Amino acid sequence: MATRTIGKVGVIGCGLMGSGIVELCARRGLDVISFEPTQSASDTGRGRVQRSLDRAVKSEKLTRAEADAALGRVLFTTDLDSFADRELTVEAIVEQEAAKIEVFGRLDKIVTSPDAVLASNTSSIPIMKIAMATARPEYVLGIHFFNPVPVLKLVELVPSLMTAAETEDRARSFAVDQLGKTVVRSKDKAGFIVNSLLIPYILAAVRMLDSGFASAEDIDNGMMLGCAHPLGPLQLADLIGLDTIKAIAEAMYEEFKEPLYSAPPFLLRMVEAGLLGRKSGRGFYEYT
Ligand code: NAD
């Protein structure tokens, strides 16, 4: 039997990742609802989507008419009840287990379609913990996008022990056929494939900087020019957000208790100082 396509998508959280998921789905012609808990956060999220679409017009990836049509397909709301008819919802709120569990508990009571897919964009939190906040864990899985969502090709699919094969098939077809992504499949272990490799590398770069081994520029140039990486590890950390790096490291440390996943004190101090990277204007580098 052919897998049914998804027409109505919900996205919870419209920050760095949520706004990218909203934009991509809208550009692909889907009906999208974007939720943020407050009007000001919703307005900020809308502004993010709008600016990214404007950049796509400027670089001639989209026409003005296509960008306007994409934005016209998105309803920005502070009312989660409007997610009742969504066929697939992606949660992209802060990387905090308790907050995600709360959102999935609410969503479970709101979404009425019995075979709707409930997905998390979590970078590291085991999907089972989130799925068990619902009465339908067989419809829950991880659909993990990468930043910037409209540009990077990868999606990690993370079925939990409880995810039904049909749910995974629908999510795969959504990511590949409808959004044009390439999918890799990971076991439900904190960090999944990419962050299990990436986070220890970034943390090692932070420890290297903190110890005075080398400057931020030299660490980043070393990896860009010596290993052909498009960004160095500290530039990448600034792009991801240092609060998100810290949260991912903590979820991985909690799962494996391995020192290589433990967030170095220097990273903790930067997050405490509000130096979160690009999104706050300063991290390992300054952004104007
Ligand atoms: P962000 O801080 O940019 O955005 C989070 C958004 O969620 C904010 O707009 C906030 O207002 C909203 N939010 C917070 N609590 C909420 C709630 N209870 N209900 C609804 N909205 C709420 O974070 P981000 O970088 O977009 O990360 C979001 C998720 O995506 C995290 O799980 C993160 O691990 C994951 N992720 C991040 C990256 C990255 O590069 N930053 C990449 C892949 C996945």
What labels describe this entry?
single chain; 288 residues; alpha/beta; Rossmann fold; N-(1-d-carboxylethyl)-l-norvaline Dehydrogenase, domain 2; 2 domains; eight-stranded mixed β-sheet; 11 helices; 13% strand; globular; binds nicotinamide-adenine-dinucleotide; 6-PGluconate_DH-like_C_sf
According to CATH, what is the topology of the largest domain?
Rossmann fold
Provide the succession of SSEs.
Answer: EHEHHEEHEHEEHEHHHHH
Q: What kind of assembly state do the chains in view correspond to?
A: single chain
Query: Which ranges are low-confidence, i.e. pLDDT below 50, for 5 or more consecutive residues?
Result: none
Using the coordinates above, name the CATH class of the largest domain.
Answer: Alpha Beta
The N- to C-terminal Cα distance equals 53 Å
Q: Please name the fourth-level CATH homologous superfamily of the largest domain.
A: NAD(P)-binding Rossmann-like Domain
Q: Helix tally? A: 11
Mean pLDDT: 97
How are strands sequenced across the largest beta sheet?
3-2-1-4-5-6-7-8
What is the percent of helical residues?
Answer: 40-55%
Radius of gyration of CA atoms, rounded to a whole number = 19 Å
- Which ligands, by name, code or SMILES, are bound? nicotinamide-adenine-dinucleotide
Main beta sheet, described?
A: 8 strands, mixed
In CATH terms, what is the architecture of the largest domain? 3-Layer(aba) Sandwich
